[in-house]
Amino acid sequence: MTADGGGPPFPLSEADQLPAERREFLKLLGFAATGSAAFVLRPISLGAAESNDWDLGFVDAELGLILASVARLLFPHPELKDSVYFQVVQDIDSDMARRPALGGLLRDSATALAEQVGGDWLAASVPEQISAIESIEGSEAFFYLRNRTIESLYRNTEVWRLVGYEGSSIEHGGYINRGFDDIDWLDP
Amino acid sequence: MSEKRFSTEQAVVVVIGSGAGGGVLANALAQRGIDVVCLEAGRRLAMSEIINDEATMFGKFTWLDPRESSGQTIPGFPAWTCKTVGGTTLHWTASCPRMQAHEFKARSTYGPIADTTLEDWPLEFDDIAPYYSAAEQLMGVTGTHGIERLPGNNNYKVLEAGARKVGYRQIDTNNVAINPVPRDGRGACLQTGFCTSGCVVQAKWSTLYTEIPKAEQTGHFELRPECMVTRIAHDDAGRVNAVQYLDASGELREQKARFICVAGNAIETARLLLNSSSDRFPSGLANSSDQVGRNYMRHMIAGVVGRMPGEVNIHRGAHQAGIIKDERGYDPSRGFVGGILMLTVPFAPEIFAKFLQPTGWGPEYADLLAHYNHLAAMLIHGEDLPQASNRITLHAQTTDAYGLPIPVVHYEEHPNTARLRDYALTRGRSVYEALGAEDIYDMVNVFPATHNMGTARMGSDRNTSVCNRWGQTHDIDNLFVSDGSLFTSAGCENPTLTIVALALRQAEHIADRVKRGEL
Fold it and tell me: Quick check: B363 contacting A, CB < 8 Å?
């Protein structure tokens, strides 16, 4: 089982992964030229980190910022506050309490990422950071970070609201009177 | 709750498992005045523990004991079965299509196919038809016996509209064991959208709140939850006479038995028979044919997801209350044998994030996930063929917390299945293409098996099967199998209705033989 977050309905594990697809980074950079991508790919802000209530036992502040930045780069939702991505770091910290080897894996990975961008991850440009992450696709650390970010992010009710997933419905009487069949764009 | 009724020295009927097979069989026997002890490995959830949260419920009822994956199975999690009172009837979608008549004659219909062990069932559709009818009445299946169908939800309306555009005609909200109106003490479907996490309004049939409490009211039944059977014992004559199990406190106990029915889901049933080897039966119980654990089938299961031009809100409503049946027949002109069903299915954002693109990340992927409410999805089921090499075996070294060798689940896809899948995905995609989907995604090789079949199959030839047409093992007169392990071939339909029908049929057969003093 992978189940770092308490058990995903369909666990993900390393050996099952399809070969990583090469990404079209030129296209991505072209997208950046339109102006909106600077916002989409907004780097994690140090200010937000300082105001965040850290409660970390294993992740130090520097690693925490890198991991939060990677989480946003993996699943960038411009509408989300940095605090949602810091929650991912909080969850990683909880995993470390149970998995002693995880700390070393992630610290090595953060070092490797920083080296890819010339030493200072947070000072690097977003395209540089994306290229660096691409270079670790397929690694154990990448699979862990992708899976953990998904399990943290897409179980977060703030993210649910953003994407339109309404969560528990029984307390509202289900959807029988609340739009289970309200689709309006199909041809009659 | 079940109070203790029977001593371990009393030779009762022991039913192992409390799901679709075991729960139904146990109640059917108890209703006929036969004393039954039902041993269930999992816990009995209170209704207050069933909540609308997928990740939480996954942790509460899933069989999480270690299993080894081999071949083309999901690493670390080859199958999603349940360890809870009610078994997989907690988690199932309640989809209840009947198998088709020709599927019971798969070998005669399809002809010889290389690298398969395809056989006809030792019974025909007409033999099981009355029990299908009884099972549908028992569970309250929509579209049968005057029970109205569920109304179509948004995901169904998309499926139906696209299906009509591509020329399909057999489209409806499926036959589901979900109450459209209150029935049998259970509530009506509120379209909560959490079928597979347990239905707190009990609109969806589950043995947890139907067969089990009904059996308890007879005075002939005792449920023992959190009791993991470790071994079935036999006497000098080779008849089974007791079941050894670890109770909730971990204490080893032995229950005397007059006969034993195994219904632990295809993986655990085979594992228990293999783990019960003895000097007399060195390769495991009922395994003189060497077929226990072999011929493991699980259906071809794949998802197709469309990013639609408008909102769908896929999470609102009953999961598999939508079906296209046009492709379910036998039509070798498609390039393969076996049928295909296309059913609606919803997923939560987490599952789409993990598997729409199994390695996906970055701005475009996040944008796709941000359009969660525009996604429509179907799950495709296709028949897979039995192969001797697809099998459950015991791990040579690794044991679980009970001290039992863990099961190794090996499955390789037959070339026929690969052709069926490619065709099915093309047809499935066309449904969403017809409605102007902006993008379409396949979800292939990401689902653990939920339809587990064939590992103690029925047959008329005792050299190529484990059980006869009643689910009685060829080798041991008073040992029965009562779950999906019995399936001779897989059909393309969700297996639960057929499991329940077989259990009702078996109960009648056993009760007749008890009455005649034969058991």
Answer: yes
